[in-house]
Amino acid sequence: MARIFNFSAGPAVLPEEVLARAGDEMLDWRGTGMCVMEMSHRGKEFMSIAADAEADLRELLAVPANYKVLFLQGGATLQFAQIPMNLLDGKGKADYVVTGEWSGRAVKEARAYCDVHIAASSEDRKFTYAPSPWNVRPDTAYVHYCSNETIGGVEFHEIPKIEKNIPLIADASSHILSRPLELAKFGLIYAGAQKNIGPAGLTIVIVRDDLLGKAAKGTPSVMDYKLQAAADSMLNTPATYAMYVAGLVFKWLKTQGGLAEMEKRNIAKAQLLYDYLDRSAFFRNPVAPADRSRMNVPFVLNSAALDAAFLKGAEERGMVQLKGHRLVGGMRASIYNAMPLEGVRQLVAYMKEFEAQHG
Ligand SMILES: Cc1ncc(COP(=O)(O)O)c(C=O)c1O
To answer: What range does the domain containing 75 cover?
Structure first.
């Protein structure tokens, strides 16, 4: 059966090799006569799967030894609340940078816990750029930003510089593992798995260990980073099957050449699409060129009346999930690690054809 090109923003395309391997191992994982879904999370088989997944992720991202890697649940959205619950450290204030929908939602959640100050915002130009510099309060507990806005397609290509003693926190959900990352510049990064990591249901948190142990009174134990770190993310039953598939993705990334190779491929894919968008008189991307996301590429047609015809033609050619987010309309092509260059080539070829016909 031929697979289609899936441009969904998440849950998103996974590497074919990973899906095939999970299929091969479905009924009998390595002679155990069991599917990974059926295994006790405390048994030696699953413990080895979890340990491998963590070791491979540490290797891929070069996670420094003083950082904990947590495999949690609740999605990135739970982190919007879990971060203030764990990191306010009695200060009662936190600074946020607003660059679109996801960082905006983080602010909304945080307001229930503390005094929020907006250190920078790109709302003045409809969230189409990455603002700098930031106006950070010296006594803030931390600064939070979204390093890749999935809906608006805005990516911070440099890690913002802030005062050394203030923890920098990033929602990296939609571009984690797409490029090497200097983790030592962060206090904490987090990501929902369903874009570049694996199935939905798993959330990865990477946190510097001096930030553990500051949870506010009343924080549920499964939401306390320190308790989860001490229990190797198994304070309760973790998302075992999602962790297993994520582990297969990490192994796949290693065989492909790791994050440096992913970055090269992702630049090539993004360039192909943006170059065409910039040459086209019919399609347009609204984001400032220096801040365009390599992972999520929103674009609009000259006439919104043609949106449905564009999507229908794409589907007929085996390209799906190109409809933009309901908040912004238009189109969006999410081109995560597992999207092959060929998928982007076919998309651009179709866009040219569509432009010639309707432009
Ligand atoms: C950047 C970003 N943050 C947060 C979320 C919310 O993630 P979840 O659905 O895992 O809570 C998303 C979801 O698409 C996202 O793209």
So the answer is: 16-255
In ligand 1, the atom with minimum distance to the C-alpha of 77 is 11
> Are 51 and 167 within one domain?
yes
Same domain? 113 vs 231: yes
Q: List the catalytic residues.
A: 102, 171, 195
Q: What share of the chain is helix, strand, coil (3-state, %, to 5)?
A: 40, 15, 45
pLDDT of residue 123: 98
226 and 331 belong to one structural domain: no
What distance in Å separates the CA atoms of residue 175 and residue 305, rounded to the nearest whole number? 31
pTM of the model: 0.98
Give yes or no for residue 173 CB within 6 A of ligand 1. yes
Ligand 1 in contact with 240 (CB < 6 A)?
Answer: no
Q: Model confidence over 238-248: pLDDT tens digits? A: 999 999 999 99
Q: Are residues 71 and 218 part of one domain?
A: yes
Work out which ligand 1 atom sits closest to the CA atom of 150: 16
